[in-house]
Amino acid sequence: MRILHLIDPAAAGGGPCTLGLVAAALSHSPQHRHDVLIIGTSAHLALAGRCGLEPLGRIGTPLNRPSLARNAMRKFLRAYESASNKYDLLHAWTPGCGALAASVAGDRRVLTGPVVAHTSGRAGPLEIRRLQRGHVRLLCASPAVRSVYEAAGLDSARLTVLAPAVDRNVIAFSDRLRLRATWGAHEKTFVVGLLGEPARWVDARAAVNAVSRIALGPKEVTVVLHPDSAGRPIAQQWLASLAMPDRLVVDEKIAEPWRIVPGLDAALFMSTAMNASPPAFDSHRRKPPGLLRALLSPSAWPRRLPNILPVLWAMAAGVPVIAETCEALHTIIDDGRTGLLFEPGDPNGAAERILQLYDDPSVRKAISTAAVARIDRSHSPDQFAARLDEAYMCAMSRRVAP
User: Fold this and answer.
1) How far apart are the first and last CA of the chain?
2) Can you tell me the distance from the alpha carbon of 245 to that of 366, in angstroms, rounded to the nearest whole number?
3) Helix, strand or coil for residue 285?
4) How far apart are CA 140 and CA 114, in angstroms?
5) I want to staple 183 with a disulfide (CB 3.0 to 4.6 A). Which of 132, 249, 292, 383 is the partner?
6) H helices present in 252-360, as ranges
7) Closest Cα partner for 275 from 344, 350, 204, 346?
């Protein structure tokens, strides 16, 4: 089978973690011919290379909307397929790329996902309609994501839950001392990494609020975050006003979590907005609301779901996870066993969980062991590649995936 993979790294579900997932999946699927096309900029092309991919090239996205790149996509397919066989399947890894693939597919099959975060803003309803019209099969990273798309009107028969995977073999555990030296942290410093994808959805203010409650005492805690984290300048100013500017480290490599997790003692997940509610319209309707209503009321559509891939990377490295509780994480984190949960927007709850790990190494060890076992059992690249191949076969035969 000849498969073309389309990835938009600028999309909420198409960043470095997804690029790493694609690289792992392709390396474990030698029975098919795989080509990768980046829908984005030259910087996205370079990012794909850092994440282990060798793309054929890239196509620009007018107004950052992949669905507007139809003409360029058609030209690409004509050029590449004239020199070799036609692609059997277009595998789009984000809903925006799925809408693009559906518009140019012809008699090729189209598969989208596993989707790890919902689109936001006015593009969401339009992409849903294009996926529906194109009869696109959608792979969902969790039952929570599947529920969102069912509520949005997609046929449940074309929605399959496919949990993503991470490859522990790419984590350089020997880099711990080097990373901590780069951050100015000695071995007794408790380093908390603020993870999440995309970085602009990560709440630096809330994380620093939690960490500062601990750092004001005798305990030495440092938080590492991405420069694009929401509220990062305000968080830095706040710590400076408390005479603790060294408690915050900015490192852009945190966007590729496998590069930095060996240096962490805990991984914190606090987002700027947690969406736990279904759309406002009737979930039993078999089609989304009218286009006019969708455009006039984009708030009726879900905007953000946590990307679970950074959580999996922390667990794979044996780094205890502290996260806001939500439906998307309940299938991954067993509170108190494979991670620690707290209520969304509660810095006191986050601080209590950090202290729990800080004060009791036995808790850290138990959570670390259980988390690694969970990754090996349910999120290995071999398992993912096997289930993905099954999804390919179902898409080609138009069967419903189990």
Assistant:
1) 21
2) 32
3) coil
4) 5
5) 249
6) 291-296, 309-316, 327-330, 347-359
7) 344
Secondary structure (DSSP) of 114-134: EE-S---TTHHHHHHHHHHHT
Chain-centre distance for alpha carbon 14:
7
Divide the 402 residues of the chain into consecutive groups of 10 and give the mean pLDDT of each group. Answer: 95 92 94 95 96 95 82 94 90 91 92 74 64 83 88 85 94 96 93 94 93 86 96 94 93 96 97 50 41 38 70 97 91 95 92 96 97 96 95 81 54
Task: Look at the block and give the residue holding tokens 């850290």.
Answer: 364
Structure tokens at 325: 């509780």
Length of the chain, in residues: 402
Task: Put residue 372 in one of left, alpha, beta given phi > 0 → left and psi -120 to 50 → alpha.
Answer: alpha
**Domains of the chain in sequence order:** 2-165+380-397 (3.40.50.2000), 171-271+306-378 (3.40.50.2000)
Helix 95-104 and helix 70-83: axis angle, to 10°?
A: 60
Q: What is the DSSP string of 23-87?
A: HHHHHT-TTSEEEEEEES-HHHHHHHHHTT---SEEE--GGG-GGGGHHHHHHHHHHHHHHSPPP
Cβ partners under 8 Å of residue 166, min gap 6: 20, 21, 24, 258, 309, 312, 313, 316, 375, 379, 381
Largest CA distance in the chain: 68
Q: Does residue 216 sit in helix, strand or coil? A: coil
CA separation for the pair 151, 162 (Å, rounded): 18
pTM of the shown model: 0.89
Q: Which segments of 152-246 does DSSP mark as H helices, in order? A: 176-182, 204-215, 232-241
